[in-house]
Amino acid sequence: MNWIDIASIVFVSVTANHLGLIGKLEEMFGKLPILDCPKCLTWWITLVYTIISSREVFTSLAISFLCSYLAIWLELLEGFVDTLYDKLYDTIYPTED
Q1: Residue 83 domain flag
Q2: How many domains does the chain fold into?
Q3: Which residue from 2, 6, 15, 62 has the least number of CB within 10 angstroms?
Q4: For 10-56, how does the pLDDT look when each residue is reduced to its tens digit (9 = 90+)?
Q5: Which residues contact 57 (CB under 8 A, 6 or more apart)?
């Protein structure tokens, strides 16, 4: 089990949802309930990865719950960065009505 891989799983799961990539997949393939939620996607992918790599079920569950909780905060941070970007963009390129 590699912590860099686990951190990458959390980042990719949250960022793919945040950027709307999962929404595009749903347009192509229909509703995908587990993929639509960054916490759920992080939990399931981390659980599968850690069970395959370590074969320790309880440790895998604990790591998956921790990563899912961290995904909530990463999602909040990405939303905050988006807000900052929008404000900065509006000050640099003001729109005229």
Answers
A1: yes
A2: 1
A3: 2
A4: 999 999 999 988 888 888 888 878 888 899 999 999 999 999 998 89
A5: 51
Orientation of helix 57-92 relative to helix 3-18, angle to 10°? 50
Dist. CA 2–CA 7, nearest whole Å: 9
Residue 38 belongs to some domain of the structure: yes
46 vs 67: CA distance, rounded Å? 7
Structural domain includes residue 97: no
Query: Chain-centre distance of CA 88, in angstroms?
Result: 24
Residue 86 belongs to domain spanning: 3-92
**CA quadruple 51, 7, 40, 70: dihedral sign:** positive
Q: How far apart are CA 86 and CA 90, in angstroms?
A: 6
pTM: 0.85
